[in-house]
Amino acid sequence: MDIKIGIDSVEISRIEKSIQSESFVKRVFGGEELAELEARNMPPESAAACFCAKEAFSKAIGTGVRGFELKEVQVLHNDMGKPYLVFGGDAKKIVNELGYGFDISITHTDTAATAVVIAFKQEG
Predict the structure, then answer these.
(1) Which CATH homologous superfamily contains domain 2-121?
(2) What is the pLDDT of residue 124?
(3) pTM of the entire predicted model
(4) Is 100 left (phi over 0), alpha (psi -120 to 50) or beta?
(5) What is the CA radius of gyration of the chain?
(6) Residue spans per domain, the chain
(7) How far apart are CA 21 and CA 19, in angstroms?
C-alpha cells in the first residue's frame, strides 16, 4: 500500500481576521463548504480547521498549493460529524490522476487548529 501524510496547523486568530475579507472567503472556501460554515455562523475555529485541511491535503499529495485553487478542495461533514474531502476543478483532476483515496482528521484548541490528511492507494 502506498501511503502519504500531510499535516498543518494554524493560529485561529489569524484565520479569524482573514475571514473578515470577502476576497479571502471566496478564494479559500467552496460553495458547499461555505454553506456548512455559514449555517453555523462561520465559527473561526471551524474555518481555521478547513483551511488547515486544504494545506495538509497539498502536503499529502506532495505539490503544495500548486495546480489547483484552495476552494476546489472542500471539507464537508457526514451525518455523524466526520469530515471528508470533496474535490472540484483542477484539484479533482489531480486526485483522479494520482488515484489516491483520502482520510482526514481535524481538531482545534482555543488558539490553534490542526488537520492531518492521509492519502492512500493499493499497489498492483
Answers:
(1) 4'-phosphopantetheinyl transferase domain (3.90.470.20)
(2) 62
(3) 0.93
(4) beta
(5) 14
(6) 2-121
(7) 5
Q: What is the pLDDT of residue 64?
A: 84
For residue 53, give the C-alpha cell. 485541511
Q: How are the residues of the chain apportioned to helix, strand and coil, as percentages rounded to the nearest 5?
A: 45, 30, 25
> Per the structure block, which three cell numbers stand in for 121?
492507494
Query: What per-residue confidence (pLDDT) applies to 122?
Result: 72
**CB proximity list for 47: less than 8 A, separation 6 or greater:** 15, 16, 19, 29, 37
Asked whether the beta carbons of 73 and 85 are under 8 A apart, the reply is yes
* Rounded average pLDDT per 10-residue block, the chain, 124 residues: 95 97 96 96 96 97 91 97 96 94 96 97 74
Provide the 10 A C-beta neighbour count for residue 93. Answer: 14
Separation between Cα atoms, residue 54 and residue 58, nearest integer Å? 6
List the one residue out of 18, 56, 55 whose CA is nearest residue 37: 18
